[in-house]
Automatic annotation (TrEMBL):
Keywords: Magnesium, Metal-binding, Transferase. This is Isoprenyl transferase. InterPro entries: UPP_synth-like, UPP_synth-like_CS, UPP_synth-like_sf. Its EC number is 2.5.1.-. Binds 2 magnesium ions per subunit. The gene is uppS.
Length: 244
């Protein structure tokens, strides 16, 4: 195990958000659930801008889980349509702002027109450097690990050569630092199969606000709250040094 540096009052390098509560937001307004998903996707831009303004290089958003396929087909279809419309509407601006899009998950089972839009967006933004926006779409933490194990086994790697780093290098997040801070809106206190490997030492910030109501000020508040956390990684604070 490598020794990690203690961080006390630092900005997170990677913030990951479980964007939850769109349905309840709509219900509270007497609107259909899809109106909530529409409002939720509309909120992404504000948070991306705030992350760039705060100098956070990696932002990850949980958009659709492997379990979300269990929802009624009208809702799944609606979510896919909203995702496609979102790319049509917002991609140009995201690109202009220097956002590099990255997919966590697979496009297996995703409608081919939408899959093509997503692939095009990734290719278009591949060289951008302001912020890496990873979109967990058709993503599950367990599926992520299963996929990594399959790749490792397919390469015929010796069991004794398997390490933390090797597994991490086969996850969808390969090359992206582990999330420092995981934010979940809507008051739920669970991971729901999000980044279960990567979140081993993440800090958590749960807020009762519903995702469409979680704006830049609230994001800033979450980041500032993170700055006061003391991360120990199982060690303890020494005299300016991490004790193993
Ligand atoms: C989050 O909002 C978006 C997705 C899971 C796709 P929900 O649809 O889960 O909203 P609630 O939790 O029902 O309010
Ligand atoms: C998690 O939210 C998935 C996304 C935000 C995309 P859910 O609403 O699906 O999670 P559960 O069902 O409440 O655990
Ligand atoms: Mg939910």
């Amino acid at each position: 195990m490598t020794v990690q540096q203690l961080e006390t009052t630092v900005a997170p390098r990677h913030v990951a958000i479980i964007m939850d509560g769109n349905g309840r937001w709509a219900q509270g307004r007497g609107l259909p659930r899809l109106a909530g998903h529409h409002a939720g996707t509309g909120n992404i831009k504000r948070i991306v801008r705030e992350a760039i303004a705060l100098g956070i290089p990696y932002l990850t958003i949980y958009a659709f889980s492997t379990e979300n396929w269990k929802r009624p087909s009208w809702e799944v279809r609606g979510l896919m349509r909203i995702m496609a419309e979102y790319l049509d509407r917002e991609l140009r601006e995201l690109h202009a702002e220097g956002v590099r899009l990255h997919l966590l998950g697979t496009l297996d089972g995703v409608d081919s027109a939408l899959a093509k839009k997503i692939q095009n967006a990734i290719t278009l933004t591949a060289n951008n450097t302001a912020l890496t926006l990873s979109v967990a779409f058709n993503y599950g933490g367990r599926a992520d690990i299963v996929n990594a194990v399959r790749e490792i086994v397919a390469k015929g790697i010796n069991p004794e050569d398997i390490s933390d780093e090797m597994i991490a290098g086969h996850l969808y997040t390969s090359g992206i630092p582990d999330p420092d801070l995981i934010v979940r809106t809507s008051g739920e206190q669970r991971l729901s199969n999000f980044l279960i490997w990567q979140a081993a030492y993440s800090e958590y910030y749960m807020t009762p606000l519903l995702w469409p109501d979680f704006g830049p000020d609230q994001f800033r508040e979450a980041v500032s709250n993170f700055g006061n956390r003391e991360r120990r990684y199982g060690g303890r604070i020494g005299e300016g040094e991490m004790v193993k």
